[in-house]
Amino acid sequence: MVSVGSADRYLPDTVQQAVKILVVGAFGVGKTTLVGSVSEIEPLRTEEVMTEASVGVDDAAGLDTKRTTTVAMDFGRITLNSRLVLYLFGAPGQRRFWELWDGLAEGALGVLVIVDTRRLEDSFDVLEQLELRGLPFAVAVNQFPDSEEYTAEELRGALDLLPRTPVVMCDARERGPSVDALISLVEYVSSDDAVRVKESA
Ligand SMILES: Nc1nc2c(ncn2[C@@H]2O[C@H](COP(=O)(O)OP(=O)(O)OP(=O)(O)O)[C@@H](O)[C@H]2O)c(=O)[nH]1
Ligand SMILES: [Mg+2]
Fold first, then answer.
1. Which pTM was predicted?
2. What domains lie within the chain, and their CATH numbers?
3. pLDDT tens by residue, 171-186
4. Distance (Å, rounded) from C-alpha 32 to C-alpha 23?
5. Pocket of ligand 1 (CB under 6 A)
6. Is residue 121 within 8 Å of 147, Cβ to Cβ?
């Protein structure tokens, strides 16, 4: 998490636009980690310790250090440049939380979808839900140490993405690449391509 002084809690006077971004992805892909890495304010988290009840429901394979899961949402803020601030809303990706998305997605400019290539199939449902809702999105690939390396084009094929959908490699624990993923999303949704996606949905 970025350490913040009290001065950073307040938005600069130069900010002209505040936009809402949704961060989604399957269980344990790194949503809470990414929001925490980029947020300039202490992120709001709703973590609960995972219990026996999640065994066989949420697949934590490859997530040895994971002890908690998000039960409602993550929230963070990042000032991308002197004029633009993003409010990040992280939403759990499991099917049982999909109803939450409708409220959280209201008024959102776009969605950053985080995927873990070790469990790519877990992301199919999430992408399908976004397409159904007509939400413009970019894909951030969270690289874990034992992730195989794929090219963006290979992943685009495997995830059946449109040629114009951004696919960005990142490490959710690192601020720089996580911010770059958000910038790709904002650039994409600000372009005509994304508008077309929205209109055709
Ligand atoms: N090695 C590595 N570990 C990561 C990375 N990102 C997250 N983790 C770890 O992976 C686990 C999952 O991260 P979370 O941020 O909790 O994932 P999440 O998507 O918010 O999970 P849910 O809210 O439960 O769906 C945590 O134990 C993190 O410490 C990464 O880029 N590399
Ligand atoms: Mg989480």
1. 0.89
2. 17-50+68-196 (3.40.50.300)
3. 999 999 999 999 999 9
4. 9
5. 25, 27-33, 63, 65-66, 69-70, 92-93, 142, 144-145, 171-173
6. no
